[in-house]
């Protein structure tokens, strides 16, 4: 079993993660005893997962997401309940596997640890394990070798358990073939729709239907608490209006970056290629060289025939039809021998035979566009915009803390911050906690703070929140309305419309089921059938519920019929006119691909079932109160 772990490529990734991400290390005993601090976020079979472990794991996961996404991560996502919940669940799963490994007597010997550590590239020098590099790398993370090896040993034991479960997944070839054949099966169907819209006129509601529904479902007519707010957005764009640059600054920037605003020399050339690969046999190269030399003599004797000869003799399929012409290009666009020849020739001149990795070239320069600088007036606005953004970026970095301090220290108004930093106070319309956005930003942390008791009761500024990279927002409540039940007269019309639609949908289902029953008896059903079409399992042609109905219908007697209530309302009856199944050869490459996917699905299912059984064996309790405390910003 350990060989399977040691040979698994992911082991090296696990070890490198241990070194790259600073772990909160509490020793091996922390898996089975109370963690430091006595404040646990979860308990697994009596073993506590401390708040310190949770906080560290959350920070690690946030850092990994930032790195993987280049720092462009919505802060609200990093602090979301879903993120925190996933971290807790992962910690619980690790603890379950660790406890199972311990109870099962799974061990990792010191020799096995050394074998794994010796193969990690980060610990090697000149391809060999270096004790000095190993100890330095471990110490850089605040760990001793003993601490690191204890943690690594625990991870390897967990990995052995996971691999044992995953490797037990087995898929029979016959099952895979049946599965793929079922997925590729096609059925030709036509559809008979019973639409609620067509039946609306036949629906009659009692006069008091809407009022009864209103009284029986009070929660459906509650409008959540809402407010109107004023807010400030502090970002580089807000500061751009305050930044100006002088003509002198723009001119100096232009003169200091002449290469950037220049247009390099370009040349238009044509060529004749006699192909000869770089690794071609010497005899083939010599023969190609002789042909190129003969063609060179011919074009030099009669340069006007260059294009004609290129069309007839050149072995470059991309340019031969155009008489060998390549169009304008600058330096760096062609292989070096070709480029050197082109840029050493004058207009109209023909090169000697030039050898490249593609073969032998005869080149003629057709035209030359000399290098030139873009005039100052052409790039003036472009430079001014860039300089303004640079200045705004510097000012933002300098004033971001000032903005945050002003809205916090003078919390009764946004006016001081607006005046000090030249910002515009803007206002929202009515917004709710779940559906609101401020300045186009739907930020969970900002909205939670704005709807908090302190912000609503005291009307104080919300602390500055980074709603996206380089953008801070502060807001305060202007008007507030508590959650309330909407008056009946306000909702009467839409409620009646909804009830009428529901009744029409029910009637459509009754009519559809009656039609299906009649067809099953060999009778006719009234209505217009659609044109027949071919559908496949998992295809986009029909809704999933309709696909299930169509492919669940017996095929012993065709046409066969199936019916289903549609998700959007109404009912559809399907007539299955033909069934086509593919015949797969045993060596069909699709079988192997599906087999691998199928095995992964089974392994994932088995592993989740294994974790579920461990949860029953080791009682798991998540401290929701402590978790909520951890969620506070």
Automatic annotation (TrEMBL):
Domain of life of the organism encoding this protein: Bacteria
Q: Name one Pfam family in it.
A: Rotamase_3
Annotated PpiC domain residues? 264-367
Arranged from A to Z, the UniProt key words for this protein are: Cell inner membrane, Cell membrane, Chaperone, Isomerase, Membrane, Rotamase, Transmembrane, Transmembrane helix
Name the membrane topology term. Answer: Single-pass type II membrane protein
Q: Which GO terms describe its molecular function?
A: isomerase activity
Q: Indicate the transmembrane segments per the record.
A: 12-32
Reply yes or no: does the keyword DNA-binding apply.
no
Tell where it localizes.
Cell inner membrane
What family classification does the UniProt entry report for this protein?
A: Belongs to the PpiD chaperone family.
The molecule here is called Periplasmic chaperone PpiD
């Amino acid at each position: 079993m350990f060989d399977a772990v040691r040979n698994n490529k992911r082991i090296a990734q696990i070890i490198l993660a241990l070194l790259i991400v600073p772990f909160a290390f509490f020793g091996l005993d922390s898996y089975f005893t109370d963690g430091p601090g006595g404040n646990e976020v979860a308990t697994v079979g009596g073993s506590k997962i401390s708040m310190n472990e949770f906080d560290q794991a959350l920070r690690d996961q946030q850092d990994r997401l930032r790195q993987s996404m280049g720092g462009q991560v919505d802060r609200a996502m990093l602090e979301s309940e879903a993120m925190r919940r996933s971290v807790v669940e992962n910690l619980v799963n690790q603890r379950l596997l660790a406890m199972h490994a311990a109870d099962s007597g799974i061990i990792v010997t010191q020799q096995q640890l050394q074998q794994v550590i010796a193969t990690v590239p980060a610990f090697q020098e000149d391809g060999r394990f270096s004790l000095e590099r190993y100890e330095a790398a471990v110490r850089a993370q605040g760990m001793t070798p003993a601490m690191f090896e204890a943690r690594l040993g625990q991870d390897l034991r967990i990995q052995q358990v996971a691999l044992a479960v995953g490797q037990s997944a087995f898929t029979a070839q016959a099952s895979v073939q049946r599965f793929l054949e079922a997925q590729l099966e096609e059925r030709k169907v036509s559809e008979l729709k019973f639409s609620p819209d067509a039946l609306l006129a036949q629906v009659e509601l009692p006069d008091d239907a809407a009022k009864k529904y209103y009284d029986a479902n009070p929660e459906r007519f509650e409008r959540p608490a809402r407010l109107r707010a004023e807010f400030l957005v502090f970002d580089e764009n807000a500061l751009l209006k305050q930044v100006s640059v002088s003509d002198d600054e723009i001119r100096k920037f232009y003169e200091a970056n002449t290469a950037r605003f220049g247009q390099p020399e370009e040349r238009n050339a044509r060529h004749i290629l006699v192909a000869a690969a770089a690794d071609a046999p010497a005899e083939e190269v010599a023969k190609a060289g002789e042909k190129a030399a003969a063609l060179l003599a011919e074009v030099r004797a009669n340069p006007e025939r260059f294009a004609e000869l290129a069309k007839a003799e050149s072995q470059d399929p991309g340019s031969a039809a155009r008489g060998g012409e390549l169009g304008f290009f600058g330096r760096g666009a062609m292989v070096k021998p070709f480029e050197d020849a082109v840029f050493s020739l004058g207009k109209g001149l023909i090169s000697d035979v030039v050898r490249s990795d593609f073969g032998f070239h005869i080149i003629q320069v057709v035209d030359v566009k000399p290098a030139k600088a873009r005039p100052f007036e052409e790039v003036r606005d472009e430079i001014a915009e860039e300089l303004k953004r640079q200045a705004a970026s510097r000012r933002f970095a300098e004033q971001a803390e000032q903005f945050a301090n002003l809205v916090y220290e003078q919390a009764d108004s946004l006016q001081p911050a607006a005046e000090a930093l030249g910002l515009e106070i803007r206002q929202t319309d009515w917004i709710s906690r779940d559906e609101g956005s401020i300045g186009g930003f739907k930020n969970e942390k900002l909205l939670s703070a704005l709807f908090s008791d302190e912000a609503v009761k005291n009307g104080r500024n919300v602390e500055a929140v980074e709603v996206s990279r380089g953008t801070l927002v502060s807001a305060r409540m202007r008007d507030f309305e508590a959650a309330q039940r909407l008056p009946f007269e306000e909702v009467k019309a839409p409620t009646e419309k909804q009830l009428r639609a529901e009744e029409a949908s029910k009637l459509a289902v009754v009519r559809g089921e009656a039609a299906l029953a009649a067809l099953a008896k060999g009778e006719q059903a009234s209505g217009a059938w659609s044109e027949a079409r071919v559908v496949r399992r998992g295809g986009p042609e029909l809704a999933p519920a309709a696909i299930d109905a169509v492919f669940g219908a017996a095929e012993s007697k065709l046409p066969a019929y199936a019916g289903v209530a549609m998700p959007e309302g109404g009912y559809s009856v399907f007539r299955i006119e033909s069934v086509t199944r593919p015949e797969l050869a045993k060596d069909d490459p699709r079988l192997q691909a599906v087999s691998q996917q199928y095995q992964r699905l089974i392994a994932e299912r088995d592993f989740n079932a294994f974790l579920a059984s461990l949860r029953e064996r080791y009682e798991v309790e998540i401290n929701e109160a402590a978790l909520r405390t951890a969620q506070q910003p």
